[in-house]
Specification:
The chain is mainly β. The protein is built from no helices and eleven strands.
Length: 113
Amino acid sequence: MVTLLEGSDVMGAERYLGPVAHVPMGEGRVFLVDGTRVVVFRQRNGRLYAVQAECPHTGGPLAEGILGSGTLICPLHGWKFNLASGECLNEPRECLKTYAVREDRGWIVLSEN
């Protein structure tokens, strides 16, 4: 299930989306940021990634994909993406838009790359 959360608290070019606890370890959650759907993933080691919410191949809901070791597998057709670079390992011409994301005192902070 995709949870759509509204990004909030604008601080300059950064967006404070909400508490990191909103994204369980090993999962992703979709946030609506200035009208754009962005999925934030939190690996089991706590590292955060943020990318566009839909697969460029067929629009699959990436928040429902399989996450592991910095990669994501689309739930519809199994395309595999590097979450840090957005590179598609199946089709190099298809990339995900990535966003800079970090944690600040327990909050998810998003900014443009």
